[in-house]
TrEMBL record:
InterPro entries: AB_hydrolase_1, AB_hydrolase_fold, Peptidase_S33, Pro_iminopeptidase. GO terms for molecular function: aminopeptidase activity. Residues 42-299 form the AB hydrolase-1 domain. The keyword S-adenosyl-L-methionine does not apply. The active site is at S116 (nucleophile), D268, H296 (proton donor). This is Proline iminopeptidase. Belongs to the peptidase S33 family. It holds the Pfam family Abhydrolase_1. The lineage of its organism: Bacteria, Pseudomonadati, Pseudomonadota, Alphaproteobacteria, Rhodobacterales. It catalyses: Release of N-terminal proline from a peptide. GO terms for cellular component: cytoplasm.
């Protein structure tokens, strides 16, 4: 079977002719949703995590009369198969998948939209394939570094959510608690990975929302379903997001000539303004749009409105 034949949609969702599975190779089939106006402004939406997947609510960012949006669940994420698979799952694989999908859909340049990890992947993709990108609308820039994760979970978590931090220290029990909890999440024993995955999920939730409503780990029944994202994040974060040291900033000159709008929340505890400012200083085509009194989450009305406007502005003309 030829490479082209392997990449034909192999199963269509009966509920929508615009949904299909894309054979990315290595045993991975990516769930793809095509939404909007055929022949409209091409857009690819990159979800966060890594590992979270796309959801229908994200369509509100786009104009169905203007945009043709490709929502793709990355390897092991969302509805892609095999679920939660970490085999052959690196940033380089995801970049290759995006370019193969763009070519499969016969699209020219597309607008790259993403936030948090989606911004990391969008930047890495645009740096690898600048000729395939018309612009970037990014939210909550994450440069994919260990230093950012340490600042978030070893400093800001302790400052703003001390009860969660105490639980984190107690569970991790190590001089390097980040490495310890990621290793616990990936441990095959459910008695070890379940509490670690749930605690990581609770810490991220609290750090993501301006008003999280809980400052302590949530008590759950023994049969509560496990969240998927912690497992993929643990794999990526243990491996420095499969990026070389300082890769995103070092390769920023490759973005020269590409327009970009960087939506940044003032009180984002996971991806604070510092990272966005560092990137913009090396990317003359980038504009920072600050959202005051907002946190990390895309569900914040101010954040979603700012990202939707950035998408519209980059789609004009």
């Amino acid at each position: 079977m030829s490479r082209a034949e392997r990449r034909r949609p192999i199963r269509r969702n009966p509920l929508s002719e615009r949904s299909f599975f894309f054979d990315a190779g290595d045993g991975h089939r990516l769930h793809v949703v095509l939404w909007g106006k055929p022949g409209g402004v091409p857009v690819v939406f990159l979800h966060g995590g890594p590992g979270s997947g796309c959801n229908p609510g994200q369509r509100a960012l786009f104009d169905p009369e203007r945009h043709f949006v490709v929502f793709v669940d990355q390897r092991g994420a969302g509805q892609s198969l095999p679920r939660r698979s970490r085999a052959a799952n690196t940033t380089a694989h995801l970049i290759g998948d995006l370019e193969a999908l763009r070519r499969h859909l016969n699209l020219g340049r597309w607008l790259v939209v993403g936030g948090s990890w989606g911004a990391t992947l969008g930047l890495a993709y645009a740096q690898a394939h600048p000729a395939a990108v018309s612009g970037l609308a990014l939210r909550a820039v994450f440069l994919g570094t260990r230093a950012e994760l340490e600042a978030a979970f070893l400093t800001r978590l302790c400052t703003f959510y001390p009860r969660l931090f105490t639980a984190f220290q107690s569970l991790a029990g190590s001089e390097d608690p980040l490495t310890a909890i990621w290793q616990q999440i990936l441990h095959p024993d459910p008695q070890i990975h379940r509490p670690a995955a749930f605690l990581w999920y609770d810490m991220e939730r609290a750090m993501s929302e301006l008003r999280p409503g809980s400052e302590a780990p949530i008590t759950r029944p023994d049969d509560a379903p496990l969240p998927a994202t912690p497992f993929m994040e643990a794999s990526y974060f243990l491996n420095d997001c499969y990026l070389s040291p300082g890769q995103i900033l070092q390769n920023a000159p490759r973005l020269a000539g590409l327009p970009g709008i960087l939506v940044q929340s003032r009180f984002d505890l996971l991806c604070p303004p510092e990272g966005t400012a560092r990137l913009a200083a090396l990317w003359p085509g980038a504009e920072i749009r600050m959202v005051e009194a907002a946190g990390h989450s895309l569900s914040d009305p101010g954040v979603s409105a700012a990202l939707a406007l950035a998408i519209a502005d980059l789609s004009a003309g």
